[in-house]
C-alpha cells in the first residue's frame, strides 16, 4: 500500500507542479537534504513531463481541454481533508508487463506505468512525434488519447533497482461514467480487450495450457462472441478510423496492440429513442471525451438496434519489432518453431501481418444493418 501511495504522489506532483522536487531553496543545506532524500527514495521517484508542449497543444487546441480542467482531476477538492495523492486510486498490477494502473477519483483519466525500456523508449524516440501529428489531424482516431507522458529524472535507489516504474502515461478513461451508472442501479458495463486469437500463445497452447495458472491465462486476449450492430454510415466511419490508425502503427513497426471494446446496455424504457441515450448520461458531452461532438467511439455509438451503446479505443501500441527485447523474443520463437512449427506470436509477427489479422478481427465483429432493417426483429 505504501508503494502505491508514493508512486501516486510522484505522478500527481509531476502533473500539478511539473516536477517532484521543490524549487531550489536559498539554503544550501536544505537543498543538499532534498537531493539526499531523492537519491534514497525507493518508490517516490522524481518525474518530469516529456514533451509537455506537444501534449498541452493536443489538450488545449484539439481536445478543447483547459489546463485547469485537466489538473483539477489530480487535485484534492478545496476545503477537503484529502491529500493530493488520494486523487489517484490504485487499480492494481495487471498484465504480463508488470504495469501499475491508477484512476483519478473522478474517473476521467487512467495512469498506466510503462516499465519496460523497449516500450517507453520506443514511444519517446519513434512514435511520439507521429502520434502527436496523427491525433492533431484525425479527430475521430480510435487511438487512446494520451494527455501526458512522464519519465523519471535524476538518480535514486528506486530507479536503479527498478522498485518503482520509471515512466507513466496519462490517458483518457473510456469507462468514464461506469461508477455513476452503477449507483443508478443500471446493468454493469461489459468490456473486452481484443486481439487476434489465432496466434501462438505459449500460456494457452503448450500442453493445452496445463502448465500455466488460470490467473495467468486470464490476462490473455478476450474473445467477443457477438456482433456490434451498426448502420452503414457508422460502420464506414469505424472502418475508416481504424484503417488510418493501424496504418500509422504498421508504418512504425508496432504490433500486439488491442481494441478495447465497451458495451453498455441501454435501459429498456429508452431502447427505442437514441436522443434519450444522450440524456441518460451514457454519452459524455464534455472534455476529455469530446471533441468531436457525440456520438463518437470514445463517447459512445448507439447500436443500430437501439439496445446498446458501444465505446472503443486502440490501446497498448508500445511494442515495436525493432527494439532489443522484441528482437530477442522473435529469435527465441523462431528457434522454437524449428522444433514445433507452432507459428508466430502476436509480439513476434510482422507489423503488416499483425495489422491484417487485427483488421480482419475488427471487421468480423461488425454486423451492418441497412436503414430499412434497423427496427427490432
Question: Main traits of this protein?
Answer:
Phosphorylase Kinase, domain 1, Phosphatidylinositol Phosphate Kinase Iibeta, Chain: A, domain 2, 377 residues, six-stranded antiparallel β-sheet, four-stranded antiparallel β-sheet, 37% helix, globular, 14 strands
What is the alpha-carbon Rg in Å? Answer: 22 Å
Please mark out the parts with pLDDT under 50 across 5 or more consecutive residues, or reply none. Answer: 276-280
How are the strands of the largest sheet arranged? 1-5-6-4-3-2
CATH superfamily of the largest domain: 2-Layer Sandwich
| Gap from first CA to last CA | 52 Å
What percentage of amino acids are in beta strands?
15-25%
Using the coordinates shown, work out and report the CATH topology of the largest domain: Phosphatidylinositol Phosphate Kinase Iibeta, Chain: A, domain 2
The percent range for helix content is 25-40%
Average pLDDT:
83
Q: How many β-strand stretches?
A: 14
InterPro entries: PInositol-4-P-4/5-kinase_C_sf, PInositol-4-P-4/5-kinase_core, PInositol-4-P-5-kinase_N, PInositol-4/5-P-5/4-kinase
Organism: Immersiella caudata
GO molecular function: 1-phosphatidylinositol-4-phosphate 5-kinase activity; ATP binding
Transmembrane segments: 29-47
